Sequence to fold (322 residues):
Amino acid sequence: MLGPVLVALAPAPPPIEPVAGAPTIEYAPAPGCPDAAALRSRVERLIGRPLRDGAEAVAVTATVTHGETFALALRVRSDTGVRERTITAASCEALVEIAALVIAVAVDPSASLEPEPEAEPEAEPEPEPEPKATAPPRRAAIPPPSRRRTRPTGTVGVLAGVGLGIVPGPTAVVGGGGGVRWPHARLDLAVEHAVTRTARQDAGRGVEVRVLAARAQGCWVPTVGRVLEFPLCAGVAAGVARGRGFGVPRGETRRAPWVGLHAQAGLLIAPLAGRRWFAFGPMVRLQAPLVRPAFTLDGFGVAYRTKAAGFVAGLAVELRFP
Fold:
């Protein structure tokens, strides 16, 4: 579209006398179109100099209207006559660009149709920011740990093992009981029975001894994760030692109190992930009787006296609730 316009409006060969007293551009834009200053600035950039009203070779009247499309009515007046042309386009910006090109060639036939690129201003180095005095960082307030009460859980369990020093010789020890536990502590109550063993003075004479005792203990329980527990306990036991003589004329049965202290260590394993209602593991106990029952046979002296220290090792199994 620009080709025919430029050829049709090409001015006669110079020199052309200026149109005295007339403004170079009279421009009436449609609403929303670039204004006269924008058109004039575009022409001056194309010819490379400012326009001189009343001193140029031409005077131009440009009117933009808007109907179905944008229309540019262009009238160029010079000493050689008047030329008129109407151009349409889809946008007002395109018409203003065409008008600027036509006017620039009419004013100065030697003008370049491409504007010289504007030199980008050299970027000034940004000044180094002055160090600002900063206040020491404020530590975020850490809420105090919640003191949620941990409800204790109940336990019931059984023990089976072997003992020394309770009755004559090694003996089986069985028991059962219950208690309460917290994450790192527990209290236990249990009843244990040391199975009957025999102390002989000779082939046909001796005493049969067994012990039934109740135990109470408190424990500190270090843990590893939620699977392993290491209860370290101390407690007291009280019960009855029962002895029955044989091989003598008067084979009587006697009962004597049995009281002692003990220290115990163990390992409890809760293997069911997410279900800590079951645990099992080994335990060892050292015990010392405060009262040492002794059993005598008439006319034959002491047949058996409880040892000064005893030992129990076994396996504990417990259920926990709720």
About this structure: The CA atoms of residues 46 and 109 lie 11 Å apart. The first helix runs from residue 2 to 8. The radius of gyration is 57 Å. The chain is about 10% helix and 50% strand.
